[in-house]
């Protein structure tokens, strides 16, 4: 009968813990390390200062959080940026149209 079993998400096996690439973990690690260094440097903070100190970890965590239909928010933002910055006029050059070449 030739029934083939195709996994629903074959790319997930290439990811660390099924969600992260090495770049994602590097971004998150740098954000957390920056936050930890700032926590050690600034003692006796106000609430506003604590929020500023926590921003690197929060931003990097937001960028690597998984979202549906995309790998993560960083990938979604890169796709949006690529779409906005690339040309919007697409020229058809298929097999059914003549190129003008003889």
Description:
With 102 residues, the chain is mostly helical. It is built from 3 helices and no strands. Helix 1 (22-41) packs antiparallel against helix 2 (47-64). The longest helix is centred in the first third of the chain and has 20 residues, at 22-41. It is elongated, with a radius of gyration of 22 Å.
Largest sheet: none
Q: Provide the structure class.
A: mainly alpha
Low-confidence stretches: none
Distance between the termini: 48 Å
Strand content: under 5%
Query: What is the approximate shape?
Result: elongated
Rg for CA atoms: 22 Å
Oligomer: single chain
Q: Residue share in helices?
A: 40-55%
Provide the residue-averaged pLDDT: 80
Count the DSSP helices.
3
Q: Find the count of extended strands (DSSP E, 2+ residues).
A: 0
Order of helices and strands: HHH
């Amino acid at each position: 009968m030739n029934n083939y079993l195709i996994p629903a998400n074959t790319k997930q096996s290439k990811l660390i813990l099924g969600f992260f690439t090495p770049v994602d973990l590097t971004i998150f690690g740098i954000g957390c390390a920056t936050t930890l260094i700032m926590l050690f440097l600034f003692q006796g903070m106000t609430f506003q200062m604590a929020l500023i100190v926590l921003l690197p970890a929060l931003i990097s965590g937001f960028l690597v959080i998984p979202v549906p239909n995309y790998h993560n928010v960083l990938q979604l933002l890169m796709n949006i940026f690529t779409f906005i910055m690339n040309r919007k006029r697409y020229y058809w050059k298929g097999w059914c149209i003549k190129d003008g070449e003889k």
